[in-house]
Automatic annotation (TrEMBL):
BP GO annotations: L-proline biosynthetic process
Source species of the chain: Alistipes putredinis
Domain of life the protein comes from: Bacteria
GO cellular component terms, semicolon-separated: cytoplasm
Pathways involved: Amino-acid biosynthesis; L-proline biosynthesis; L-proline from L-glutamate 5-semialdehyde: step 1/1
Record Pfam families: F420_oxidored (PF03807), P5CR_dimer (PF14748)
EC code(s) of this entry: 1.5.1.2
PANTHER family found in the cross-reference section: PYRROLINE-5-CARBOXYLATE REDUCTASE (PTHR11645), PYRROLINE-5-CARBOXYLATE REDUCTASE 3 (PTHR11645:SF0)
Keywords annotated in UniProt: Amino-acid biosynthesis, Cytoplasm, NADP, Oxidoreductase, Proline biosynthesis
Name of the protein described by the UniProt record: Pyrroline-5-carboxylate reductase
Encoding gene, per UniProt annotation: proC
NADP in keyword set: yes
Residue ranges constituting the Pyrroline-5-carboxylate reductase catalytic N-terminal domain according to the UniProt record: 2-99
Record function comment: Catalyzes the reduction of 1-pyrroline-5-carboxylate (PCA) to L-proline.
Positions contributing to NADP(+) binding: 69-72
């Protein structure tokens, strides 16, 4: 089975690199189409078996799966110019461009093929993305295939299209919010006297532990908070100070602002 990825930038390149180390595709069956030769060189350097090309869209005529990983304002022209001609039966087109909707894809690509919008986050580079997907004109087998592709790069779920925006905000924008918390905690650790590297190691391992507890216990975060806090203790004092500063409200308002953006 052949897959062509149009756009070898941050997202497209990460997808190609991730899939080349999975069992779903042979590296030689993965083509990455770039506009710039420098991106082609980066892909080839990672894995010479990957078919990285510059400005050559001929693979789209034979690929069973096409992933569009270009800037949103390029998607329409790309589809009209390169994806309306010869193609294999059952070809699947997946857009990972933010702000592109299924109705637009259908208008540009036609009603006779399976279409998907998928929104990974940048952790796809290390196979830890949370990817939400919505589809149109697709069979159950095609749904399973697309879920398997993104499931190999982290976790993946099919959702109704109306939920794709909120899901994008929570996970694709949300990863940046998580990084900001990490940065703030690191800076706090340094102010308390830890060396920067020790603060970084401590914060990252603490977060790994928090995630492991939630996944292992199937618990609500507040249950785990209650296990840490004691009456009159230092943890509850810190938590209350953070809430006085609007911690929970700031997170929710940030998510809502991104969703409305």
């Amino acid at each position: 089975m052949k897959i062509s990825i149009v756009g070898g930038g941050n997202m497209g390149g990460a997808i190609a690199r991730g899939l080349s180390t999975c069992d779903l595709f042979r590296p030689q069956d993965i083509t990455v189409i770039n506009r710039r030769a420098s991106k082609t060189a980066e892909i080839q350097e990672f894995n010479p078996e990957l078919q990285a090309v510059t400005g050559d869209y001929s693979s789209l005529a034979t690929a069973y799966i096409v992933v569009i990983a270009v800037k949103p304002w390029i998607v329409e022209a790309l589809i009209k110019e390169h994806l309306t001609g010869k193609r294999p039966d059952g070809q699947i087109v997946i857009s990972v461009a933010a702000g592109i909707f299924l109705e637009q894809l259908q208008t540009w690509a036609g009603k006779d093929r399976a279409l998907y919008c998928a929104i990974p986050n940048t952790a796809i580079e290390v196979k830890q993305s949370m990817t939400f997907i919505t589809g149109l004109n697709a069979t159950e087998d095609q749904n399973r295939l697309v879920l398997n592709i993104f499931g190999a790069l982290g976790k993946a779920e099919l959702v109704e299209e109306r939920l794709l925006g909120p899901a994008t905000t929570l996970c694709s924008c949300g990863i940046a919010f998580a990084f900001r918390y990490i940065r703030a905690a690191m800076e706090g650790g340094v102010e308390l006297g830890l060396y920067p590297q020790k603060a970084r190691e401590g914060v990252l391992q603490t977060l790994r532990g928090a995630i492991a507890l939630l996944e292992s216990n199937g618990s609500h975060p507040e249950q785990e908070v209650d296990r840490v806090t004691t009456a009159g203790g230092i943890t509850i004092k810190g938590l209350n100070e953070m809430e006085h500063a609007g911690f929970t409200s700031a997170v929710i308002r940030g998510l809502k602002a991104s969703n409305n953006g």
